[in-house]
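Two quick folds needed for the group meeting slides. Do the first one here.
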Amino acid sequence: MILNIENDLDRFEEIVKGRVRKDLKRYMSSGEMIGKQGSQKVSIPLPQIGIPRFRYGKNATGGVGQGGGEQGDAVDGKPGEGQGKAGDQPGDHTLEVEVTLADLAEIMGDELALPRIEPRGDKQISSKRDKYTGIANIGPEALRHNKRTFREALKRQIASGSYVPSRPVIVPIKDDKRFRTWKTKTEPQSAAVILYMMDVSGSMGNEQKEIVRLQAFWIDTWLRHNYKNVEARFIIHDAAAKEVPREVFFRTKESGGTLISSAYKLAVKILEEDYPSADWNICPFHFSDGDNWSGNDTTVCMTLLEDHILPVSNQFSYGQVDSEYGSGQFYKDLNERFGDDNRLVTSRVPRRDAIMDSIKEFLGQGN
């Protein structure tokens, strides 16, 4: 009975994952996810999974409950209370299941076929990893090895003569149970820093900022799921740049002019002071509508990228959202200057449903 329940749960989890994959774009464009941590669970509505319910119809043959009475009479003869009018249509039932952000990140990685980014640098931190190494006669039920358990039960029943081939029922007892054993192994792991830079100037509307936050959130969730030693720093900028905590980055609503170089100058300062490229994997992300204050400032940006940022980065990613007030020129300038440089990846994100494709453009490089 327990084995059947476990199999049913496994099948249900596979159904849930299949439904999540089907509607992954919709889940990734939901602002409700922002601000949650990887270990937290989120409720995912799955209206496609039907819930068993009675079907009502006319019964012309009579039966229990077919006596006299008027429509609306209480069953026990006492008046009842209620609101609204009667309807003739079935209700819309939605099943909600809980999924961790780590599970969603894994599904996203599988669906987008995202590779692991190749590490570089000497900065390594020891991390502990459990590795299953053998089989034991005792252990927790969570680590029970079902195949080995039933094999032992079968051997015992054959040896005792209780096994009947025509009725192959195998019932394990306590002595038949086998459990996985493990050893904790210490492994060196490369460290990485992710710099998130977001344009919060006046040309970036609320929808554009929301698209940026959603994309940065899912990139951060996936990277943290796959790389245990990741540090994240957050920069917002209009005509001036400043470093902010994570919660401010995902909630701020500032506005003003635009000097993109202010963010790049601050990024260079942070990297030079805290993250030497010989020790760290460095992955900056910049999101903007591509509207810079002047061509002169764009020239300063190109120099900062060429001399200071690209040489130390595994990959520099620029994501541009479409804005009613933004010119989008910076995307063109970057590609004209660095179009042949594989350290730069640019992507356009015109609307929310393009977030998933843009993430694949960034993380699918595997640099």
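Then this one, please, same format:
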Amino acid sequence: MSDSLKSLLKASVLGLSVAFIVGCATVAEEDELTIEEVNAKADEALATANEARDIALDARGTANDARSRANRNSSRIDDLNEKIDRMFERTMQK
């Protein structure tokens, strides 16, 4: 996994965790979240980050596949252009 993707995931999880902690500190006493609730929300945030990572990895695989196909097609086009040029040369020599 690329370093930028790892950094993005870590920053997302850290940001969500800090948001939950700050949110818990600023609510009224009767609305305070329990440690279990905070942990559940952190787990939910981690699951969301993991899902985002999986989607990003899938997208990278799709992009790599598309690049491979494009390179293969480019090579075929080059071969076809050479063939057309040879045919044109033969026609011009007649």
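Slide caption for protein two: The first helix runs from residue 3 to 26.
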